[in-house]
Amino acid sequence: MARMVVRVRGPVKRQLRKLRRQTKDKGLTARCQIVLLWAEHADRSAIARAIGCSMSWVDRVIRRFRDHGVAGLHDRREDNGQTKVDEAYLATLYKIVDKQPTDFGYPRPTWTQELLAKVMENLTSVKVHPATMCRALRINKARLGRPKPTVGCPWPEPAKNRRLAAIRRAVDAVEGPDVAVYLDEVDIHLNPKIGPDWMNRGKQKQVMTPGQNVKRYVCGALNTATGCIEFVAGDRKNSQLFLSMLERLLKAFPNARVIHVVLDNFRIHSSKQVQAWMKEKGHRIRLHFLPPYCPDDNKIERQWRDLHAGVTRNHCCPTIEALMEAVRQWLKDHNRAASRAQHQKAA
To answer: pTM value?
Structure first.
């Protein structure tokens, strides 16, 4: 193919370099670079390799520059008319993604890009291709994730809010030697929890499971002041495990006049055994029960999620003893990191 004769004079070269330097459009930057390399008599195949494009695209860019000058290098899609995916479209899409297709009369419970495009066309009268919907979702920073299962609190909203506000006031009022902790139990399964992980294309990791599951239980109390976790472990999740945790708190904070314990309404926290122990030994402990089904208001739940991510998810421990040792090590490392952060904050 004969080489197109295109003369690029000095002032035009300076204009192209300035445009390449100032523009934020990567496509325009590449087109300017193609013309500048062509002006230096570079081969079209060498230009294509340097830019990372096809030789036919190099020819089209040079032809546009030959026919229209620098103006021919600008993106011509603006001549297509008004942009379909504008701010109003993206705002509507943002609201729709938080809903389900069943809210719009479709039986499918989850979204596809095709279904989103169809629903958006019904709402906005703007028809887009599924590939365009993919770009719109990317602009909105939407992600394909795993929903969190939740159970609604049976309490009336005002009663729930009053209880949560009372707990926050009690925790915020802690001063001097007094302590406030968030308490909860976590199940440790020998059969590993399966979660997402990075894998090479075309391959899938395998997680060996023992087959017969074995369980252990950890009861922990997150100190609101230091971020450290006091914990005990047991073979059963019962009132005795909970009382062992309360006794550990009494020993861990001997100078505290009151130890405020925020916890959920699990039955082991209010059994007759616990009530009898509280009358006999629990004079320094105040139990603050959260409304039912409010795990997000128990701050130690976030630490348990990190524990599962750091230890139990996709684990390869052959025995429950090895797994529990890993759990204890994670908790010790967490407490050391929390102590260091507390010392740095105090300094």
So the answer is: 0.71
